[in-house]
């Protein structure tokens, strides 16, 4: 039997976010969010650029800012998981190399 946990109350959700070692960043263009990323430690958990804002350098600029943030925090490598061909090509252009089921970039 499949069960679903009850949804968190707003205050519980905020506490979960505060206690997690996750950081959230947004890429904004003219007051519109065009990209988001979730990072935990040195792992990029989610990196999204809106489809209409892809293929024009936004992803590269956003990633470069994130890499500088992680470098300033003393991180020596960045790890992510990726399954889409277009995304794999992007991450390889950013200097990531496949290592098993992950992509890793040493800084």
Task: Note down, in words, how this protein is organized.
There is one protein chain. This protein is an alpha+beta fold. The protein has three helices and six strands. The chain has a six-stranded mixed beta sheet with strand order 1-2-3-4-6-5, with helices on both faces. The longest helix is centred in the middle third of the chain and has 15 residues, at 58-72. The N and C termini lie far apart (46 Å).
Features:
6 strands, 3 helices, alpha+beta, 107 residues
- CA distance, first residue to last residue: 46 Å
Largest sheet, strands/sense/barrel:
6 strands, mixed
As a percent range, the share of strand residues is: 25-35%
Biggest sheet strand line-up: 1-2-3-4-6-5
State the shape: globular
Can you describe this structure in just a few lines?
By secondary structure, this protein is α+β, with helices and mostly antiparallel strands.
Summarize the SSE layout with pairings.
Layout lengths: L9 H10 L2 E8 L2 E9 L2 E7 L8 H15 L4 E4 L4 H9 L3 E3 L2 E5 L1
Parallel strand pairs: 3-4
Antiparallel strand pairs: 1-2, 2-3, 4-6, 5-6
């Amino acid at each position: 039997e499949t069960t679903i946990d009850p949804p968190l109350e707003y205050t519980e959700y905020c506490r979960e976010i505060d206690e997690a070692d996750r950081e959230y960043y947004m890429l904004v263009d003219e007051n519109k969010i065009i990209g988001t990323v979730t990072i935990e430690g040195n792992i990029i958990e989610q990196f999204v650029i809106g489809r209409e804002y892809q293929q024009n350098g936004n992803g590269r600029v956003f990633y470069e800012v994130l890499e500088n943030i992680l470098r300033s925090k003393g991180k020596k490598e960045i790890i992510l998981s990726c399954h889409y061909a277009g995304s794999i090509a992007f991450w390889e252009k950013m200097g990531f190399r496949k290592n098993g089921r992950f992509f890793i970039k040493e800084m």
